[in-house]
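Dear Dr. L.,

I hope this message finds you well. Following up on our conversation about the binding site, I have prepared a predicted three-dimensional model of the protein together with zinc ion. For your records, I am including the exact sequence and ligand specification that went into the calculation, followed by the structure tokens. Please feel free to forward this to your student if that is useful.
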Amino acid sequence: MDTPLEESGAAEEVACHDCAQVQTLPPLGLRSVARCIRCDAVLDRREPPDSTPLALALAGLFCGLMANAFPIIEVSLAGRVRSNLLVSGPRALISDQMPVLALLVAFFSIVFPLLWLGAVSYVLLRVRAGTRARELGPLFRLAERLRPWAMTEVYVIGGFVAFTRLEELGRVSIGTGGWAVAATAFLTFLVDQVLDRRHVWDSIRRPAPVRGPGPTLGCPQCDLVTTLPEGSRCPRCRCQMWRRKRDSLNRTVALVIAGAALYLPANILPIMAVGRLGRPTPDTILTGIGELVRRGYWPLAIIVLFASVLVPVLKLVSLTWFVVAVRQRWRWALRFRTRLYRLVDGIGRWSNIDVFMISLLVALVQFGVLATVEPKAGAVAFAAVVVITMFAAEAFDPRLMWDAVEGRDE
Ligand SMILES: [Zn+2]
Ligand SMILES: [Zn+2]
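The resulting structure of the complex is given below.
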């Protein structure tokens, strides 16, 4: 396998994604990581360019397909047995008049995970065969953009929580599909760890040395450095290139306000109603956590408390702080803020645990008068908070915090 960087033997100029610091990247040895000298961001990471990520991605794809074909959980109550497929949750949500929630669950748990594993497998197969087709760049960019939205790992935790809630109703067991979901999540995580993204990009199209004077512009997705004007499309991945994310502050502020407005209804309104012997009891996010505590599932209770209640607040407060800091040109805690931004950006998807739990319960607990679970409006507000705050973190450009201190404008 060729490694263009080492071939040229040259150190490379890169600009940090998170703080815009331009620095020289030395040629890296295998299994080593280069971090930004100023904010500690991972700039490059070398993994052996072998077939491991491809094998893992193909195995993940296989498990992902199995997860869609076999029952996830089986519940039996008073002689009646119910089981669910991955698609049962979205289907039950549609019949309960919650089409938006149904779509979100379907995309996050079925479409995006399969699309990500499929796209990564395809790109790696083509790269291995030595192809440099034009569509590989845009396809790999799509896969990278989708990664945070492919939430199989989060679904697994949602499945755990649903499982504990089902235990009080009847006999519960995990089906073949359930184990396949867990395997898919684990394999997805492994692919993420061993995939040498720089190598994939350089195999898709080897970067030409940047010549001549004038400002350079780096691609936000594949890091290709060019001398093209702002707004041009990246020749490698077709991503539109801007020096900073466009209209970042206004978009962040709008999304933070929307997220904050929905946060209270999301936590106060019932997210579902659990009916037993015809009597429905409303369940909010907090009573759900209380239920986990009451039944002794402390670790799960703590995870859900963090993911559902604290993480959205942390995101909203941090992003507000970042925006004010840019406007006021604060220098204080720049490095800490940049690190906090990375945390906030990466952790947001975990808030979806409860959304997945609801989708599992509404599909499974349909035992007529004995026991039913119905989704409630709070669930829609809650899912909206999660998605809106994820977009808010994506809209914010942490480099603006460093620009502000250097006296530059957006
Ligand atoms: Zn940096
Ligand atoms: Zn690019």
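In brief: Confidence is low (pLDDT under 50) at residues 1-9.

With kind regards,
A. P.
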